[in-house]
Amino acid sequence: MILRDEAATLAAGAELAALAKAGDVITLSGELGAGKTTLARGLLAALGLQGEAPSPTFAIVQAYGPPETRLPVAHVDLYRIEHPEEAEELGVDELRGDHLLLVEWPERLGAEFWRGALRLRIEAAAEGGRRLTADVPPSWEARWSPR
Fold first, then answer.
1. Which CA distances in Å does 126 have to 5, 10, 141?
2. Fewer CB in 10 Å around end: N or C, the chain?
3. Burial letters for 96-126: b for 16+ Cβ neighbours within 10 Å, e otherwise?
4. Which pTM was predicted?
5. What is the rounded CA–CA span in Å between residue 129 and residue 12?
6. Would you say 2 and 31 are in contact if contact means Cβ atoms under 8 Å apart?
7. Which residues are bridge partners to 74 per DSSP?
8. Residues 6 or more apart in contact with residue 22 via CB below 8 angstroms
9. Per-residue pLDDT of the chain (147 residues; tens, 9 = 90+)
10. Quick check: 103 and 114 in contact, CB under 8 A?
11. Whether 102 contacts 11, CB under 8 Å
12. What pLDDT is stored for residue 147 in this prediction?
């Protein structure tokens, strides 16, 4: 899927919000400035968040819940994580059962940690804008298919 501009990236996040539920994990990979946080902001806005969601780069985990959003969400940015053991201290694994997890820089914990996740990658497209690619797990196949 080609995301031509910021508005298209926000809209892709909103499309995912309509399909997401507590217990889902969506990982967002891509270089710095690729649009990971923008996609997450579109999703969060569609879930009801008023105002712009801050990037969780420094907080690492930014949590939202009803009535702020229609379901509990944890927006996680693992960019500053050096070792997988650090994630245990953050409680990311405990949030999996009752939150929608949006995880930027998931590769910091390794692919095995994210089994069953909808894995999204955003990268520059040769024709301009960004290209969104997805590894769609069985739990998402009936809900969403990237165009």
1. 14, 20, 28
2. C
3. beebbbbbbbbebbeeebbeebbbbbbeeee
4. 0.92
5. 13
6. no
7. 63, 101
8. 71, 72, 97, 98, 99, 100
9. 999 999 999 999 999 999 999 999 999 999 998 999 999 999 999 999 998 888 888 788 899 999 999 999 999 999 988 877 777 777 777 888 899 999 999 998 887 788 889 999 999 888 888 999 999 999 888 887 766
10. yes
11. no
12. 62
- Look up tokens 């712009």; give the residue: 52
Structure tokens, 122? 């955003």
What domains are defined for the chain? 2-141 (3.40.50.300)
Helices and strands (DSSP H and E) totals, the chain: 5, 7
Locus of tokens 């997890």: 101
